[in-house]
Amino acid sequence: MIDTLRLTGEEAMGLVERREISGAELHRAYLDAIDERDGELHAYLRTVDESEGDGVPIAIKDVITTKGVETTAGSRILEGYVPLFDATVTTRCKDAGLPILGKTNTDEFAMGSSTENSAFGPTRNPWDPRRVPGGSGGGSAAAVAAGLAPWALGSDTGGSVKQPAALTGTVGLRPTYGTVSRYGVVAFASSLDQVGPVTKTVRDCALLYRILAGRDPCDSTTVDLPEPVQIPEAEDLRGLRVGVPREMNEAEGIEPGVADAVARAIELCAELGAEVGECELPRSVEYGLPCYYLVAPAEASSNLARYDGVRYGFRAGGATLRELQERTRDAGFGDEPKRRIMLGTYALSAGYYEAFYGQAQKVRTVIAREHAAAFERFDVLVSPTSPTVAFELGARTANPLAMYLSDLLTIPSCMAGLPGLSIPCGLSEGLPVGLQLIGAQFAENTLFRAGHALERALGFDYVPPRLALAA
Question: What is the CATH number of domain 9-283+364-470?
Fold first, then answer.
């Protein structure tokens, strides 16, 4: 019997390569696990029964296009849309022998921090089904945490890979902007969106990133990597300079249990041989969130204008074209996309563009420069990924600002286009705590090295106890 709860992607690849199991058997084992456990969790929106390769299957967030498999972005307005092509990242997975296992749940158009904004119902956290798995990629993170996929693809605009990873005890990478193609990814905020891996281990994360990364002629923002992706092996941090941004580790709202777990991980950095010192990112933390909630909604306002009820997806009907579009958008979009469309349209409107969107872009440059200055002294910056552990379903749905604050610590580096890795570093109240490692541009290999060494030293058990007992 295949233990999908503990099986990593790397281990699964070894089993298939040694022909101890076939890809089809592995695929079936995960589908059986989904049948057994996903009724409670709702990590998947749909599964794919037929394996297209003899490798390790992968779950794909439903904002990523899959040929012949419905892609909804968690929204009614795209319900029934079956793409005629694959996203580049989907193609690269298939070419590497990774067949699609299914499409995972997401906040609508990747807008949210809890996966409660999905038009098809919320996903629940495998550690405690009364709590959220984070968002917007809570479906991918929950699937990996619950042993319903060996690894998964997510997308990250302001923290949608890193924050769910933190809340579910998984590993999540937001790559350097431009290293992974956005072709075929349903656009939210084009200057921020990046596809990234969600896995059980840092080595799995590096293995999957190696498949995804690289220039794509279909996406002009992509670049060649300056060096090959390295699979980490070192178990110490000798020679590494680790910076501790004071504002990101002392921010208001960080729970004591989260602060304690992160502080222990920082002490461990020094024990593993790293040079640890304090630094500051005052403007990044103070202005990152408001800057993001001008830039991202403005770009969303432009990107979501294409959903008009005419070309594809949901159509409400109407006597005139204008009535058709109004009724389609009113019925097809949920509250959160509507909120961000209105905010973004206002920020781009005549007389307000320079005061809001233009000013936010200037602040974004300040944030990037502040991070660049920190990386003149340090190789890696560390902080909590999320200020809190997983919160209860419904606890923040009536308060958008409280929900937005879930991404307070992940947003600044996203605005700067930098890579970030979240790894589990302990428990608080019996729930996972995420440690965020931020690197300079194209420093994914450094993050993998640091994350792997810490992961081995921490010895975190990534299997939720309630599922281990039931197995």
Answer: 3.90.1300.10
